[in-house]
Structure formats: structure tokens, C-alpha cells
Amino acid sequence: MSPATEGAPPLLQVRDLEVAFRVRGGEVLASRGVSLEVRAGETLGLVGESGSGKSVLCRAVLRLLPQPAAQVRVGQVLFDGADLLALPERRMRQVRGTDIAMVFQNPMTSLSPVWPIGDQLTEGLRVHRGLSRAAAREQGIALMRATGIPEPERRYDDHPWQWSGGMLQRAVIAMAMACKPRLLLADEPTTALDVTIQEQILALLADLQEASGMAMVLVSHDIGVVAETCDRIAVMYAGTVVETGPAAAVLGNPRHPYTLGLLRSSPGVDRAGRRLDPIPGQPPDLADPAPGCPFAERCALASAQCRENPVRLEDRAPGHASACLFPERMS
Q: DSSP per residue over 234-247, as a string?
């Protein structure tokens, strides 16, 4: 993120978002009071274990949660000042793909196996921009070339089953970038790819972001990926944000025991020869959340007060917030 964008108003603001899923015998609170911000041109990393609410948050921003099973109870999702949750569906369809685009986790399931890749890639150009098939094809070939797909003229009419996972991920990214979005939600875009292809995809996203100036939310459970690519980090646990701040501050001086646990359980160059320390226990049951800190039962530093009292994000340093009653115990 350039210094010019640091003082700019947020492009995306999520305020106290609560999402519930109806299940047999009750409901599950998948998002509980989530608040975060993303500015133009910056990359925000969303990290946390599987089931922490990262993908639910991204889908809630675009109103892609399954209905009627999922309900947004309270909160706001402000994009450039407008509350996306209050927009008519017709206007929301214009936002999707043009202002905000999303790269989903698995490219194999993001594309129809029976429809040519080029036609799928350019659907947004035809629907949102009104391009003819010939004009859309021309732009689609240019997008394929820009995302590193070889021989795009020949491969435009290929079907997904003819491509590798890495190539399909490039096609999905090209599709997301077709209408030049201002915000890209990248939901674990390197999942199931080998390390070399992961590096290529991350470099591609960085290049596209630099060229377009768009903001990006990068969802990952890989601390190393987030450390290399993100300006700021939001750590999610049990459907809520437990720590957020500049990447260097969160990773170099974590102020929540869960963040510290993620770092200690992740391999890295600085941990060569050292034993990894897994986080003990299991995430809490979101169908029956405890009144206190959701991480209390797995935290070696927790006290009775942690288990009984609600905890909210509070600033621990400029721009660095944590939802921990006793962050000083980590020093």
C-alpha cells in the first residue's frame, strides 16, 4: 500500500456483522460482530483455521450466502459509502463482477465442465459491458495472455477438463479481472496447488493489483503466504476477528494468544530445527457459544475472567487491535 492511500477513507468497511445459519435444532453463528476495513490499493490478509469464518465473510460481502439457510442478523457492509446489504438485488448484480469480484477456492468447481473456458471468462464482459461475442473474445484472449496462459487464441475454446489446476486458477483470475474490479476477494487462491504454482499465482495477483490499483482481501491459512503478500492482517477465530493490524506488527509482536499459536504451529525459515507447537484442543461449538473469549478453553494464559466476560477488539498500539483481556501476559 502506498503512503498516499494510508490516510484515505476505507473502500470497504464491515461493521459488526453477524451471520447465522439455520440448522436442525437451532442455529450456528458463523460471523459474530465482525468489523474490518480495506483501503484502495492495499491487501488485507484474512487468516485462521478452517471454519473460522473467512469464506463466510467474503460471501456475505457479495451477498452470496445460501438462502434461506443463512441470515445476516445485524451489521453493515459499506462499499464506497453504500451499504451493500441494503441494495436492491438488481443493483447488487451490477456490483458483483464489476466493482467487486471474487476468486473462489477450487477452480475445478468454479467453472462449468461443458462450457468453453473463453465463453465463461468473458460472460461478465457481455453482460455488464454489453460487448459483442467478437469483441468479448478479443478482450478475453488479451486477459488470458495477461494472466500467463500460453497460446490463448488456440486455448480460448478449450473446456476445463483439458486444463491443469494451475491453468484453471489463472483462468478464474482472468475472469475476475475482466471488468476491472476495484476490490478482489481471493478465497485461498492457491489451495491444492504445488509450491511453484502457488508462487506464480501470488506473483500474478500482485502484478495485476499493482497495474490496476485495486484493493484485495486474501484469504489463507498459510501464515507464510500472508506475510509475503499482505499490508495488513485480520486474524479470525470462531467467527470473529481477534486481532488486526499492520502485517509486520501482527506477525512480529502478536497481541492475542491465538495469533501466537498460529505462528508457533507454522513452519518457517526462522523456526528451522525447532519443533512445531500445535494449538491444543478444538474450536468451540458455534451453535452454543460461551459467554467469554472463544479461545479461552484452548489458551494457556486464560483465567476465569476470560471465560466469563465478553471480549471486544481494543487498540493495543496505533492501528493494532486485539480482543484479549490480558495481552501483557504474552510479553
A: EEEETTEEEEEEEH
Q: What is the SS3 assignment for 91?
A: helix
Q: β-strands 12-23, 70-79: how paired?
A: antiparallel
d(CA 300, CA 305) in angstroms, rounded, equals 14
Secondary structure class of 84 (helix, strand, coil): helix
| CA separation for the pair 97, 47 (Å, rounded) | 24
Give 40's contacts (C-beta < 8 A, 6+ positions apart).
5, 8, 11, 182, 213, 214, 215
Which domains are delineated in the chain?
12-99+181-330 (3.40.50.300)
pLDDT tens digits, one per residue of 25-75: 889 999 999 999 999 999 999 999 988 999 999 999 999 999 889 999 899
DSSP code, position 327: G
Q: Scan for cell 467469554, then name that residue.
A: 292
Q: How far is CA 16 from the centre of its chain?
A: 17
CA 254, CA 117: separation in Å to the nearest integer? Answer: 43
